[in-house]
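Entry type: protein chain
Record version: 2
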Amino acid sequence: MRAAAIREHGGLDVLRIEEIGEPKFTDDELVLEVRSAGLNHLDIWVRKGRGGAGPSEPHILGSDAAGVVIAAGSRVRGVDIGDEVILNPGLSCGCCDYCNRGEQSECVSFGIVGLSRQGTFAEQVAVPARNVAPKPSHLSFNEAGAFVLAQLTAWRMLMTRARLKPGETVLIHGIGGGVALYALQLAKLAGAEAIVTSSSDEKLSRASEMGADHTINYRTADDVAQCVKDITSGRGADIVVDTVGAATWPIDFSAVRKGGKIVLCGVTSDAQAVTDLRALYWNQLTIMGSTMGSNEDFRQMVKAVTAAKLRPVIDSVMPLENAKDAMSKMETAEQFGKIVLEISR
């Protein structure tokens, strides 16, 4: 089968389209014929070796997928051959204290498809049967293959961790990326006021069309945090959604209100940042890390997407053979929305 894989860590040149044997699967797993697979920044980090896992020979990238079940192990129940499904890429043991409490993303052996095992940028992928759910009927395969990892991350950040309430103000950095756009969708769905930032006026304009209440161009603004204070009449944002890391960390502490919440899920800039501890305790802030989501987060997120008929913002769709071009576009932050690889029809 065709797959986008690496044999070593490095730049774009290590990513190649190869012919690889069809996946083997256990009694508790099934095999998907992958129709579409969305790109995530995790794919870049795995390629560069930031995930810490050395590549197998070869290692297939990709975490998101939508497809059709074509084979299933003997112990698989509730999923049939021919079912159209989406993949929850979070991997957990299912038996530790955290899993037993329903917090699978805190599992001691938590992993992600494409990082901890072979990924989805292939014509077929084997995954645990418990990690799939029916594809929402209002979504095309390209849409369904683009939303789970980022949407699940945004859901846990806002709904589970920060406990977003109607009427609250949410600051979202770097609008245009998957998590940021889904956070905007969820914030508006929940009745919140959304402030978004970007260095691109075009991206800010498109975010406004999606419902963003206020936009800030951080390239031209003198002080992003002061802009947020001006918008909120000096109060500050109730919640800050940060996928950037070091570059926005000082802004978070200046832009959030007293008693507010900062939720961090990624470091697309840098992982090392200085924290103003005085602002932390004096303003009684809550700082939260968030990774992916639990099985219950996944279930609730899919229900919300289905009920509200939410659709992911798709920047572009490319064939598997153009995986290197797709990754290059994401790496230079040119996209607005998800970049999708169409793998089979």
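Comment: The first strand starts at residue 2 and ends at 6.
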